[in-house]
Every structure is written in C-alpha cells, then in structure tokens.
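Morning!

As promised:
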Amino acid sequence: MTNQWTDIGQSDCVLIFGSNCAENHPIAMKWVLRAKEKGGTIIHVDPRFTRTSAKADIYAPLRSGTDVALLGGMIKYLLEKDMIFKDYVLHYTNAAFIVNEKYDFKDGLFSGYNSEKRVYDKSSWVFEKDEKGIPKRDTTLQHPRCVYQLLKKHYARYDLDTVSSITGTPKADLIKVYEAYAATGKPDKVGTILYSMGWTQHTIGSQIIRTGSIVQLLLGNVGMAGGGVNAMRGESNVQGVTDMYLFHILPGYLPSPNASHDSVAKYNEVFTPKTADPMSVNWWANRPKYIASLLKSFFGENATKENDFGYGWLPKLDVGQNASWLYLFDDMFNGKISGFICLGMNPACSSPNADKARKALEKLDWLVDIDLFENETSSFWKGPGMDPKKIKTEVFLLPAASSVEKEGSITNSGRVLQWRYKAQEPIGDTKPDGQIVHELYVRVRDLYAKEGGILPDPILKLKWDYAKEGKVDFHTVAKEVNGYFLEDIAEHPVDKKAYKKGTLVPTFVYLLADGRTSCGNWIYSGSYTEAGNMTARRDKSDPTGVGLFSKWGWSWPVNRRIIYNRASVDLDGNPWDPKRAVIKWDGTKWVGDVPDGPAPPMGLTGGKYPFIMKPDGVASIFGPGLADGPFPEHYEPLECPIEKNPLSSQRVNPATPIFKGELDKFTTCDPKFPFVATTYRLAEHWQTGLMTRYQPWLVEAEPQMFVELSVELAKLRGIKSGDRVTIASPRGKMWAVAMVTNRIKPFNVAGQTVHLVGMTWHYGWLVPKDGGDSSNILTPSIGDANTLIPEYKVFLVNVMKEERPKVEKKPEPKAVPKK
Amino acid sequence: MSMKITRRTFLKISGATTAGTLMGGLGFDLSPAEIYAQELRIKGAKETTTVCCYCSVGCGVIVHTDAKGKVINTEGDPDHPISEGSLCAKGMALYQLITNKDRLSKVLYRAPNSSKWETKSWNWALSEIAKRIKKSRDASFVEKNDKGQMVNRTNGIAAVGSCHINNEEAWLYGKFLRSLGLVYIEHEARL
C-alpha cells in the first residue's frame, strides 16, 4: 500500500474495487467506516453484493474481469468533464511528455506486436527527447502526441454505452460512481482506492491496477493522507516475504540476474536507470550500493572485489526464463523437477487447475513439507483418485512452531514492520521455520564439505553465523538484514562523519558500492540500528493527526508512512490540503512524515521532482514498463461468455502466455459451460483453509463447500438452497451445496444475459469430514501477462443439480500420530 | 486519551484506585461478580504481544500464558493503533489455532509407494533430506547454459512459501535457496 490502514479514515471517498474488505480485511473496514462517519462516501464495485456493499453509499455491479472497461470509462469522464487536478497532472505526471511518433494503437494492439511470440517490441513506447536527453514536454497539453492527448484518444472509445455493454453495469450506476469519485479531484478533496485479489487475479490484472493508478494521478490523490493506491495484501507477511524474494527479485526489489548479466558491472549497467534531468533524484541510481551490500551479506569475507563480491555464485536465469508459479508446476508436471520444498503453503488446493498440481506432485522424487497441520499437499498420495502404491514420491512432513512460539518481525500491508514476541515454547517436536531452514542448511553444508559435489562454493562460502548453541538468534538475523559498516570509515561520503567497523548502518543512505558495507535488504535498512530494534516500538503518538503513528513499529523505506508524499504539496511545498498535511516545507526543511528525500520542493531553488523512484521524476500516466501496453486496454478473460470483445478484434490479452499441455484445457462461449464462475473468501476461513479447517469454532460457522447462485439461475436450473449440485469446468468437476441469494444478479452483457456463480476455495478433501474440495479444481492455469498471477476470478462452468451420490466408502484419513 | 473502559483498562486503573470510587466516578456499573469471573482465567497470567497471523492488516493480539508457560488465552490488544482491540472471527479464534489438538508435533515420513505415515526423528529426517537435496542438485546443476554463459543454477529443485514466516526467517530461507542455486523460488504473492 502507498498509505496506511489508519489514514484511510481521512478520506473523502473510499473506492473499494476488487475487494470484499468487510469480509477479508475486517479490521481495515473499521477505518473505512471512520471515513464514512466523518462524511466520506463509500463506493463498492464488485460482481457480488457483499458485506462491503452493505456498508457502501454506492454499489455498482460489474461482470468479473471488466474492471479496465469501467475505469477506462472513468478516465474518459474525467477528461471530458475536465474534472482532473490540473496542476498536479501537469507537474507531477508525464501528461505533458511527447511520445515517439512511431507509437501507435490500432484495434486492440499497440505498436511492435509479434503475434508468433505473443510479445511486444517496446522500442516505440518511448518519449521524444531534447538535445540534452530530457523528455520533451508541451505544458499546454495540446500537442497531438503528448500523453494527455493520447490518453484522451485511447479512452474516447470507452463511452457509457460501450462500457455498460461490456461490464453489465447499469448506466445510471456508472454515472453515480464516476460523479462521486470525480469529486475528489479538487486540491482539498481526497479519494483512496482499495483493491485486492479482485484486481490481481485476471489476465489483465496489472493493467487493472494501472488504470486505477491513472485515475488517482488525474485526480491528484497519490501522496495524500486518505489517498493512494492501496493493495490490501493477503497473508500476514506477504509484504515482507515479497520484500525478500520471488523468482524474479532479490531482496529489496533488485532484479534477479540472468545469464547475460555476467558481472556486477554488467548488472549495474543494465539495471541502473539514468536521467539527464538535474531535477530528477532517480533513486535507483543507487542500485550498485544495494547489490554490493547484498552480496557482502550473502558471502561475508568471501565476497571480495577480486571475485566480484561472489556475484558469480548467484544463480542466473536464462534470458527470458520465467520461473513463476505456473511455469514451476508445468515443469513439475512434465517431470523436470525432482525435489520440492513446500513451506507453509498448500498448492494441492491453492494452485489453479489443482488436479494438474496434484498430479505434478506424483512426478517428484521427494517432497519436504513444513507446516502446522497435515494438509492436502503433504498427503496428496492418499487423496481422491490416487493409488498410494503407484506413487513413488517420498514425503517428509516437518512440524512447524506457530507464530507465538518464536520471535521476529512481520510487515503489514502498510509496509509497517512489527515485532512479534515468543509467548510459549514450541510444542512437541515443532521448531520455528527459520530454525528448520538453519538446520537444513547446516546439514547440506556439512555434506558438501565432507563429500564435495558440483560447485560447492556458494554453499560453503555462504556467511551463516546466526546460531548460539544451535539455536538461531533472530536479532542477529534482523541486524544482518539492516546492514553493517564492515570497516572503520573515517569520513563517510554522505555526512563526512566517522563510523566504526561492526556498527549497524543508520539507513540505506550510508550503504556503499565498494564492499565496505553489508545489507541484506536495503529497504529494511534502518529497521534495526544502534538505537535498537525499531520494529518493536509501541509509541502511539501521532503528531500529524492524520493517522501515521510514526513511532509504532517501523515502516520501509526509512519509516516513511505515506510514499510519494512529496506529491501532497504544491510546487512551493505547501500542502494541497492544509487540514490533512502529510509533509510541509517550512522554508528550510520538511516537517511531518519522512519526505521522499530531503531536497526542497520542485518550485524552489535546488528543488526536485516528487516521484523519486521514477527516472523522469514524475508519475507515469503513459507507462512503458508493462508487457501488455503503455495504456491499459480492456480484453476479455481467457474464458469469457461473449464471442467478441466489443472494443477490438483482440478477445484475450495478446501478451499473455498460453499453456498448451494436456491438462491445460480452456474454453470460451461454450454451451457446455454456460456460466461465469468466480472465487472468493470468507471471514471465517483462511486461504485454502488449512489453518482454519481444523478449528471447531470456525468450522461450525462455515462447515462446507458451497456455490452461490442467483435466484434467477436457481430457477432456471431447478435448484434450491441446500441442494447438492455438481459444478464442472473444462478442467474438472466437484460438488457443492447450493446457496441461492439475491447478492448475485444476472448481468446484461452486449444484449445477452450472463449468469455468475461464486465459490470459495477454503476447502480440501482431508478435513473437515464432508467439507468438500477446493474450487481450484475448476480454475484455469493461465495468468496475467506481467505477473502470471492466475485468473482465479473468471472461468466458465456448468452447474447441475445432482441426485445425492452414494456416499463413497473410503477409509478415514489416517489420524496424525500425536506427541 | 480515549475514555472507553475495557476490562483491561478497568483492571489497570482499579489496581491503583479503590474500585468503589472509580465506579461512581466513571458512571458505569459492572457487576463485581462479572468482573471477577472475567479476571479469573487470566489472573496472574503473563502477557505477550504479538501480531495476528492471518491477513495483512497487522492487528495486535495479547497472548496470555500461565505459570508453566502455556498459552491459556488470546485477545485483541486495545493499545494497538490499527486494531484498537478488535479482531475478526479468525483472530478471535487464535487460541484455538495455537492449542489445536490436531497440530503436527512429530516429524512424519511417507516412504515411496507406502500408504502410511511413519514417525521419525529430526536427526534422521534432516540428514535424509540433506542427501536428497544434494543428489537432486548435483544431478541437475547447470554451470554453463547452451550458449556457454555461466548460470550456476539448478532447475531440478523448486521451493515455495511462505508468507506466514517472519522477515528474518524469510531472509534465511531465501539465502539458503539461492546458495543451492535454485531459481524456482515462489510464494503466495504469485497467487
């Protein structure tokens, strides 16, 4: 999130879009309602009328997967009615920049498309530059190729009739949403967008978020208290663990190197953005300091200038290799992976096309599963349709300690790290996950030390000194993540002060590219310093009064609570809205939140642009960074109920890779699967339900798999609430109990009636008894063009009433031996 | 400061003042029996703060442990600026997660083609897993790719998870996996 949960209460208009906040982030809803109590408007846009809708002032239904169409219509509305925040747009975004004349967009395709490879050559998605190399601007916004005019042209097609025919949202509802949200375009008004998996889990997920960001920029809502673009993240530490790793990123969002980056110098050359504009801070120019400090944290004294800080030991992807989830399971299914470590996840239920994932597990030689409970992944070999005798996979199921049986920090959605203390010793033979990792590492290291093997160096030369009497000290780890001075520094280039070897760096500003500092994750630098463990702070003071609570825990980066906060002030550093000041220039320095850099505001001498992470210093309305276009465009979900995309000849996102394996079955406009299905979560269960399905209190509240369908569809199919029904997709079928509600209504899409059904994915065959299975048996193995996040939110199904089948006589799952 | 009186603040204040005066002064009346009953379960218990393990709001939770160090209660932390003492249904049930009778407490092993779990020691499991890791890694390790570029990776082992672990644990896990040469490193953020 750009902002904090606690400043949502400052908002004049909260647009909850692609989220059922009341159910999935219940306590966040407290802050939404606080905004409402102060007179703010709550808007909810969602395929279903949910508990969130019930608290909203305006509810607008939309067909799942058509979010870009609805938001594109909002962009058109804002531009046409001239309701944008002009000063903000002109100075703080690239609206005035002139785009290369070769850039084009025709019938759903941007310039540079290669239909064979389904990728774009993005060389025309660039700005024209002046003789100094700075993007050319037209501050009158009249140039036909300036971003503002191209934006206007791009969304001219998104008129109310077209949008309504795509989204199924009644025109009157569209207007209500547009009017209410457009009202936040005034300098002293602010609106926030809260989204969640309803935006990310689509083949155009990243572009939905981009559309929301463009709306926020046009209205000047980014950087403000009560504003921003807020990804309400799922898991308790999904933010923190993303900060640490994914296949494509090293800690702190440093890109994972590929085979063409053969040295640190080459890596830095490729990944360090440049700017010719002296007013742009271009913070990523510091990247060389972060990669050098990271390598020092990895390999300690074994990382030397002579060996390029051990850079060669880091694994490199092949150029173009994608190792994300869908590819991982595709490779596993195809027998290319022999070993699998699964820590605290349940892919047998959470993977899209779950049967493919379950079958993939059969191809493994060994599986190490670390969890609190026995689960459908560890026990896939005794699941439905499996014959244990034929499954060779060895499984090691290791018992993990719970979150109150160890200590350490987690990072919430607002980037705030909070320290959790140990309340009791781990039960039985359980161990903290980090302790298990430590013990595994030590065993592997000792084995390589004893026996040798292929390239043992990265393992043997790893710096690993966390344990005291065999137990990991998590404070030692937290300090390594923060970073150290590794040598005495007589006069630091930043402040000319002296720093002692072995002391903790105060912030990442002090990191160096020459090997004299270490830092495990540069954005966490400052979290554990010589002043102590910042993440353990519990001071509730809030001098800004806008809900920043700056001394509670610690937020990355450098305890900044609202990122892009330099955009919350005018060119002279005065808050656009003095009532909700986040920062303010007092003539010599900034006061309030930690600003995005200490330089003066851009209108004053020595001033800098506000968006310091962008090479051009401004926010991107024209965003050439994504795989599928510099402006978001509506494409239909892979499985959609209509023959043709009303906006172009491109039905599906042209840049999304499509899997073609034997189990990757898809369909569209198929009378065998006439209904749109979507998946969602409930307050009482957690993700695949593994942590909650063993809890009697929660199972009593939500005992088994159901499918939610409209009164109209129920009538059509002769289904009543409580009936047991079969739901089938091209990938599989399953049973669920029908729940007929008024919360779902049929959509009128391009003149035809489209029915939606909704399902949770909280259940699995193992527990509770007769609880049903995961709806991911039905979902497709297809993902977003940029992130490859699966399209869990839209797929086609059939729903049929079934005679209650004969109860299958299968042995009870073997009880887990007790301590 | 908010003058909402929760049991926690009530007990705090009543420790320093006489209960009778306090009740009159604050204009509310809890039956003394009710207070006693509420207090009993956690009387003398140690309080430890934690953050809820489910969603990313980051609500504060207080964990009560008895003299033997066992968790006997969990409840919302009223001093927490985000949650202000509130918790959702799952957060409220945290006690039942921690003290759940079905939690794994032993290392389990399923042999190839077997239809049952066997209980094993950590020592055995860790050394066996280390051997498997080494075998898979050595068999699949690629030092140079087809183009002759140095890649030093294995595509033969994959690892996923977990957004439930602490930052420090995630640092260790990521460092460990990359030292082995893994590139298939994914977690819940991709789903």
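The mean pLDDT of chain A is 97.

Hope this helps with the figure draft.
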